[in-house]
Design a protein that fits this description.
Elements lengths: L1 E7 L3 H13 L6 E4 L4 H7 L5 H9 L2 E6 L14 H11 L4 E7 L12 H4 L3 E7 L9 E5 L5 E5 L5 H16 L4 E6 L5 H14 L6 E6 H10 L6 E4 L1 H14 L9 E3 L8 E2 L18 H13 L4 H16 L13 H10 L3
Parallel strand pairs: 1-2, 1-3, 3-12, 5-10, 8-9, 8-10
Antiparallel strand pairs: 4-5, 4-11, 6-7, 11-12
Helix pairs in contact: 1-10, 1-12, 6-7, 8-9, 10-11, 11-12
Bound molecules: nicotinamide-adenine-dinucleotide, 3-isopropylmalic acid and manganese (II) ion.
Manganese (II) ion binds next to helix 9.
Length: about 350
């Protein structure tokens, strides 16, 4: 089994290195090939997603992605920016289904900014649509005929795009507590009204799942009021991006949340990455929490390599390390990225 490692920028290489060490400790028949992506690729080759990187991503059985983003690239024309590489990989590989589980690991109640008894209830999966929405619509920045600067980004969803992600969310809910909350802004946006109509149609095939709809502004509030009410959240690309960062802090830290980006309910050739970015403010200092990436490696084993037992071994090791008191700075501790990786390795049974 070939795993493509795309470490990227900032803390990406630091956290991917720890996830690799954990994967290598499992005694599975895995091989690794690394390629440049993001700002690192732009500086080396002039493009954030070189053809050889895309080819490796397509050839590999699964992709472990670190993060992209480099402040020195923020003024480049948009196609050359690091983030475009990630968006292009998602689009090119058809990875429309982004699973972002947010659970509170035992002992992390004190790391959450919520009251411990409220944080303790967090156990949800955000199912985020990943290849549509305002991210991929027509966009431009220009001067209008009356001389004003204007920018726009077109938000749209087609019914088949909504249906396939809704199916993923219902299938997920079926295997969990069978409670699905679809989040939109149907009181204002036509895109969201279509979203809501199609989700209701798909619901007819899942009578065992209780479906509710919530406006995104209320959802943001409910996430900090009572996150325990959520089992599976289904939402679009932009709302899912925002709500998942918020959910991560409720669960202790953005350094804890993994993700899987899949092409269907089964995860053949998926891409796995922490939900966080390249964190330029702490890059190169050994301060990053590698757990989100280590847990992404567990998702990779589960969804793309059919190695459920190995995935659970990793998750149990992260949990045991945290219970034993291992903490990076974001969790209120003192461990370096490498020392946190060591703690997970030491807890691996
Ligand atoms: P960020 O997620 O990189 O960082 C936000 C804050 O969280 C920072 O204070 C950072 O230090 C902290 N943080 C993030 N990950 C952490 C970890 N593992 N351990 C400890 N602390 C962690 O978001 P940002 O600052 O808005 O963006 C920085 C760059 O990353 C931008 O260029 C952005 O476009 C990019 N970005 C990339 C991805 C991705 O590759 N998937 C995701 C988000 C942002
Ligand atoms: C994420 C990131 C990306 C997104 C950016 C870097 C394109 O924030 O993976 O959450 O918005 O999807
Ligand atoms: Mn994000």
């Amino acid at each position: 089994m070939l795993i493509a490692l795309l470490p990227g920028d900032g803390i990406g290489p630091e956290v991917v290195a720890e996830a690799r060490r954990v994967l290598e400790a499992l005694d599975l028949d895995l091989s690794f090939e690394e390629a440049l992506v993001g700002g690192a690729a732009y500086h080396a080759t002039g493009h954030p997603l070189p053809p050889e990187t895309l080819a490796l991503a397509k050839r590999a059985d699964a992709i472990l992605f670190g993060a992209v983003g480099d402040p020195t690239c923020d003024t480049l024309e948009r196609p050359l920016r690091p983030e475009q590489a990630l968006l292009a990989l998602r689009k090119e590989l058809g990875l429309f289904a982004n699973l972002r589980p947010a659970t509170l690991f035992p002992g992390l109640e004190d790391a959450s900014t919520l009251r411990p008894e409220i944080a303790a209830e967090i156990d949800m999966v955000i199912v985020r649509e990943l290849t549509g929405d305002v991210y991929f619509g027509e966009k431009a920045r220009h001067i209008t005929s009356d001389g004003r600067r204007e920018g726009y980004d077109r938000m749209s969803y087609a019914e088949d795009e909504v249906r396939r992600i809704a199916i993923v969310a219902f299938e997920m809910a079926k295997r969990r507590e069978r409670i699905l909350c679809s989040v939109d802004k149907a009181n204002v946006l036509e895109t969201s009204q279509l979203w809501r109509d199609v989700v209701n149609e798909v619901a007819a095939d899942y009578p065992e799942v209780t479906l509710t709809h919530m406006y995104v502004d209320n959802a943001a509030m409910q996430l900090v009021r009572n996150p325990g009410q959520f089992d599976v959240i289904l939402t679009g690309n932009l709302f899912g991006d925002i709500l998942s960062d918020q959910a991560s802090m409720c669960a202790g830290s953005i350094g804890m949340l993994p993700s899987a980006s899949l092409r269907a309910w089964s995860g053949e050739n998926g891409m796995y990455e922490p939900i966080h970015g390249s964190a330029p403010d702490i890059a190169g200092q050994g301060k990053a929490n590698p757990c989100a990436t280590i847990l992404s490696a567990a998702m990779l084993l589960r969804h793309s390599l059919d190695q459920e037992a190995a995935a659970q071994r990793i998750e149990a090791a992260v949990s045991a390390a945290l219970v034993a008191g291992a903490r990076t700075l974001d969790l209120g501790g003192t461990l370096s990225t490498r020392a946190m990786g060591d703690a997970v390795l030491a807890a691996l049974n």
